[in-house]
Give the backbone structure.
Amino acid sequence: MKRRRGFTLIEVIITLAVLGAVGMLVYTLFGQGFSLYAEEANSAEKQTEMRLVLSEITNKARVTDEASISYSSGQLTVDDYVYALNGNRVIRNSTELATDITIFDVSIVDGLLEIRIVNTEGDEITTSLFLSN
């Protein structure tokens, strides 16, 4: 009887092919996972920017007299601060606060300040605030 030592070339090739297929599958799954993570992180960052804009405006409006708050020609004025949509950016006195914004809608009716912001991904955030006299 002949004793066989080692592997044949066919066995090595089949093993390498199977390992290569498994490696490609794992790489594909991890690649998709990392892509989804990056997209979600970007979306969360954009939503955080919108929340920060609303938070800043409402905090300033709460401590400002109603007579010092107005909205006209696409600009919200709260005391010495002017908020507006410039292209796809929300700005405060020429300082960029948020990007990729499509709608910055403000209305002031009977002392109620309502603000709506929508970004390019379709995420929408709104707030309402009764102004003090």
Summary: The CA atoms of residues 116 and 126 lie 4 Å apart. The mean pLDDT is 91. The first strand starts at residue 69 and ends at 72. Strands lie at 69-72, 75-78, 81-86, 89-92, 95-98, 101-109, 112-119, 124-130.
